[in-house]
Amino acid sequence: MGDATVVNATIRPEEAAHFGRLAADWWDPKGSSAMLHRLNPVRLAFLRDAIDSHWPQGDHGAKPLAGKRALDVGCGAGLLCEPLARLGAEVTGVDAAAENIEAARLHAEGSGLAIDYRQGELASLNLGAFDLVTAMEVLEHVADKPAFIAELARRLAPGGLMVLSTPNRTLSSRLLLVGAMEAVGAVPRGTHHWADFATPEELRDLLADAGLTMGEPKGIAGSPMKGLHLSDNLSLDYIVTATRA
User: Fold this and answer.
1) Any alpha helices (H) in 21-97, and if so which ranges?
2) Cα distance between residue 21 and residue 32, in whole Å
3) 176 located within any domain
4) How many domains does the structure of the chain reveal?
5) What range does the domain containing 155 cover?
6) Residue 11, pLDDT above cutoff 70
């Protein structure tokens, strides 16, 4: 997993280069980003529930984000941006790798979606505030987690919603996400560095320091019967909401 990388103070050039090399087949569900294609429906289900809960007076039909601005940071080639646009949002996607942004723009154009894609440092982009801010499988790739979370918080409009997902730093994630999945080619080698994973407790503290309150995390687990699914088991990967304290 890993939707890409982000910013100068937080960006690691080697991470941007790694994900940039994957850009060409990012949209191939059987390619190097196959795990992200399997992950996307799971996080979209969580997102939809979070959106409906956060804006209970909103449209609970096909366009619950109509009239709202959404920002996806570490957007890769747009796997999350495009569904957000279809949910009615005015979407901006930011990524560190120029190759990803080019692939994202081409795919959105072919899909008839107007998405504003930007390459580079989030802090240096004059983007304004957003009702929804997402960063999926990105936190583990940044060099300065407090700076990254603080910058996300600065982009969150009053009354807005943030949704983050990231691997947990546990023995299980070390054995499965880093060891087994890279060994069998389910995730490209070099995608994950276990020491950079953040526990839910660490993420809660990072968000609190940025003036945000973290919701109850849900695990993203996998099984032969269910495939990837939302779970109470946080040992591998988890997804959370955050709002202004």
Assistant:
1) 34-54, 81-86
2) 10
3) no
4) 1
5) 13-168+198-244
6) no
Q: 192: alpha, beta or left, given left = phi > 0 and alpha = psi -120 to 50?
A: beta
What's residue 45's pLDDT? 96
Q: Is 131 helix (H, G, I), strand (E, B) or coil?
A: strand
164-215 pLDDT per residue, tens: 999 999 988 878 776 556 655 556 665 667 888 999 999 999 999 999 999 9
Asked, for residue 225, whether it belongs to a domain, the answer is yes
Question: What amino acid occupies position 51?
Answer: I
Q: How far is CA 160 from the centre of its chain?
A: 17
> Residue 33 domain-assigned?
yes
DSSP-assigned letter for residue 205: H
Residues 23, 35: Cα–Cα separation, whole Å? 14
Give the β-pairing of 130-136 and 156-167.
parallel
Residue 157: φ, ψ to 5°:
-70, 155
For 78: left if phi > 0, alpha if psi spans -120 to 50, otherwise beta; the answer is left
Residue 192 lies in a domain: no
Span between the terminal Cα atoms of the chain, in Å? 30
Beta strands per DSSP E along 104-234:
116-119, 130-136, 156-167, 212-214, 218-223, 227-231
Phi and psi, residue 59, nearest 5°: -75, 115
Quote the radius of gyration of the chain (alpha carbons, Å).
Answer: 16
Q: What is the rounded average pLDDT of the residues 148-162?
A: 97
Domain with 156 in it: what CATH number? Answer: 3.40.50.150
In degrees and rounded to multiples of 5, residue 21 shows phi and psi of -65, -20
Whether pTM exceeds 0.85: yes
